[in-house]
Each structure stands twice: as C-alpha cells, then as structure tokens.
Amino acid sequence: xxxxxxxxxxxxxPLAREIDLWEGSLASxxxxxxxxxxxxxxxxxxxxxxxxxxxxAGVDLVYLGLSAVLTSVSTVRRRALAxxxxxxxxxxxxxxxxx
Amino acid sequence: xxxxxxxxxxxxxxxxxxLSVPEGGPVRLIEAGELGAWVCDGELPRHLDExxxxxxxxxxxxxxxxxxxxxxxxxxxxxxxxxRSLQERREELLAGLRRxxxxxxxxxxxxxxERDPRGERPDRSTEATGGRQxxxxxxxxxxxxxxxxxxxxxxxxxxxxxxxVDAAESLQRPLPAPGVAGVMAHxxxxxxxxxYRARVEEVRSDFPEVxxxxxxxxxxxxxx
Lengths: 99, 224
Hints:
Distance between the termini of chain A: 41 Å
Largest sheet of chain B: 5 strands, antiparallel
CATH class of the largest domain in chain B: Alpha Beta
Radius of gyration of chain B: 22 Å
Structural class of chain A: mainly alpha
Helix content of chain A: 40-55%
Distance between the termini of chain B: 24 Å
Strand content of chain B: 25-35%
Order of helices and strands of chain B: EEEEEHEEHHEHEEHE
Shape of chain B: globular
Oligomer: heterodimer
Radius of gyration of chain A: 17 Å
CATH architecture of the largest domain in chain B: 2-Layer Sandwich
Number of domains of chain B: 2
Largest sheet of chain A: 2 strands, antiparallel
Largest interface: A-B, 54 and 67 residues
C-alpha cells in the first residue's frame, strides 16, 4: 500500500507534530540548529560511490570531498543572517566543525 | 545528471506531490528492486539553500517512514547508473534500513556557559626569554587541554546517564568546536521523541555549567 508521505498516520501522529516543531526551529535560523544541520547533511549520511563530483566555482574537487570545501561555522552563522544566494562553499577555513 | 536524496524500500510512500527543490525541480521516485530512491533531475548548486533543501526532502520522507539519508551532493549520470549503484550495495542498504526502521535521530548539543580557552592565542609574550619557559608554558597548555577533554567526556556520559532515555544507540563526540563540550546523537523510537525531549528538560537543571540544545527529529544521518 502506498500512502502519501505528508500524512502517513493521520493528523494525530506525534512524530508529525515533533517534525513540525523542529521545522519551525530550523526556519528561525538558530545557530546551533544550523550547525547541526550542516554537520549532518554535508558530513554524514550514506556515501554512495556514484559519479560524485564536487564542483566549486568551476573547479572539481572530487578527492577533497565536501568537508574540505566547507565553510567555517562562523561563516555559516554569518550567512544564515545574510540574504539567500550566497554559497557555503565559497570560503574554506580550517576551523570548520566538520572534519 | 540526477541528484539522490534518500533511500527507502520500494513500495513505501512516494514523494508528496508538489515536493520540489529550487534549481532541481520536482522530487520523484526511482525504484530498483526492493529499494526506492528519492531524486530530482540535475545537480544542485553547493549553497546553503540547497543544503537546507536536501534536508527538507529527507525530512519529508521521514514523515512516513525512516529513510537512509544520503550525503549531500551525491549525483549520478542517469537513472541507470543510480539503479546499478543501488543494486551493487543492495544487501548493505537493506541492512541499514532494518537497523533504523521505526526510529529517528535526535541530537543534543552541549555548550559551555563559561568562557572556553580553546581557540584563543595563549599569551606568549615572555616566550622570547628562553626555550625552557616556552616548554613549560606549552606543557601547562597541553595539560589544561587534556583536563578539559576528560571533563567533557565525563559530562557527556553524565548527561546521557541522567536522561536515561531508551536510545537504541548513541554517539558522542566531545569538544567538536570551541565553546562546545560535545554533541550527541541518539537513535530514538519514532513514538518516543516527546518523551526524549521531556527527559532532557527534566535533567537540564542538573547541569548548570552547560546549555543543552535538543535538535531533531532527524533522519538517521549519524547512524548509516
């Protein structure tokens, strides 16, 4: 059976409420939420060796991987407050929380 | 080129209509045997907006059942290349899905309230006076750093013990950054998130030297 991803177990699903709450927190750009997000999305998760190519400003950084082109936490915080459109990968600093 | 967001079992919920990524278009399902992949066409720019969008797609999947989140920036030349890759790692991916089934990841970020000397330049104005003073100062620095590390490890363990939550699994990382005693990730039952959060609230006052920031529910990024 296929259900719609948005409403799996009806409106009373406690997890759905928790996720709604969490999305509100992410939307408010709290620095610790954002740092945790970056650390997970860029540094964790399943790594599938497909045709992974990390390209920054036209330069392919295949071996270096994402963590090497990551911005510093302080830059992320700054950018969280800046208008959308700036890249996180524009500055690489060694003090990134991601290793 | 297609971009991969997360992996689930075939036959599970498809991306909800209207779920799309800026610069990537609609999110759609590709099935490969027992596995299903949420993808979009093209390659996403490496920007913070797209990092957020990636997580939002994974979270949309998490709402119906727990997926394996894929690291940001994973792309394939075409559907065939993706299917081949999934088939090659079929056993491993199915085992991963079994491991996280019915669970979500929660995080706690433990931040010191006091000033953190890490990251600050020590005062070495006297170091020119000789190698011996320098070495002694250096030794004191290293001892202080080790003391701080041990303190952080003990603190994380104490927090976890006090929360006493029925976390199927946990990961601790002490001192990830200046000002931070540590980050923890817990694999929690999907229905246990409110209880987890309540437990953290209850133990908060037991640790006046730090602030506990709870994050999540996440897809199990740290456990795949």
